[in-house]
Design brief:
The N and C termini lie far apart (96 Å). The strands form two sheets. A five-stranded antiparallel beta sheet has the order 1-2-9-4-7. Strands 3-8-5-6 form a four-stranded antiparallel beta sheet, with no helix packed on it. It has six helices and nine strands; from the N terminus they run βααββββββαββααα. 50% of the residues lie in helices and 21% in strands.
Length: 204
């Protein structure tokens, strides 16, 4: 991981302005966060971990450029590449270890938001910032859940349709098999079989 902010608050504030998470924050709010060290710019090399499953941290990341892979238990769950996409927030929200590993898919630039620094802001700014950040994160999670549920519904529909098609195919094949058996049973070949045996057994 490479730190890219270099203390340039103006540049960081401009980047933060491109992210919906900070839509409710005025420049003075952003400067307070930057002054506390809560937000920084990070670059990750391809394959480098932004977060690792099981670790507990209060930092989450906002994609600016590049893409990330979400991996849980060694199995890839998704690839996310939209600028403004937030990853790694679940540990902070749930107060427990990371639920997945997030790996950079090629060079990836992110805003790193360390909520641990927000805890040290003076009141009432600290409470106000937390409320606004949680509200935005709730929208993010709700949207993600809605997308996942829509995909789940589409998958269940596809499974049901294919089961119905399979049942129809099996029923048609069974009917065809019954027809063949009926045709076979209707063939009277007893006389021909007897003649054939007689011819085969005859000695000349």
């Amino acid at each position: 991981m490479e730190r890219l902010d270099g203390g340039d608050a103006v540049m960081l504030r401009s980047l933060m302005r491109t992210v919906p998470l900070w839509a409710d924050f005025v420049d003075e709010d952003l400067d307070l966060l930057l002054g506390a060290g809560a937000v920084g710019l990070r670059r990750f090399a391809s394959g480098e971990a932004l977060v690792e499953e099981g670790n507990y941290e209060k930092t989450f990341f906002i994609l600016l450029r590049g893409a990330v892979r979400i991996v849980r238990g060694g199995r890839q769950l998704a690839v996310m590449d939209g600028p403004g996409t937030i990853v790694g927030e679940m540990s902070f929200i749930l107060g427990k270890g990371r639920t997945a590993t997030v790996l950079a898919e090629g060079p990836t630039d992110c805003l790193a938001v360390d909520m641990g620094y927000v805890d040290f802001l003076p009141s009432p700014e600290r409470e106000d910032f937390l409320i606004r950040i949680f509200r935005r994160l709730a929208e993010v999670v709700a949207t993600r859940l809605g997308s996942a549920n829509a995909r789940k519904a589409a998958l269940l529909t596809g499974i049901r349709e294919r089961r119905e098609a399979l049942r129809a195919h099996v029923a048609a094949e069974r009917e065809a098999l019954r027809g063949l058996k009926r045709e076979l049973a209707g063939l009277d070949t007893a006389d021909d079989e007897e003649v054939l045996r007689e011819l085969l057994d005859r000695k000349f």
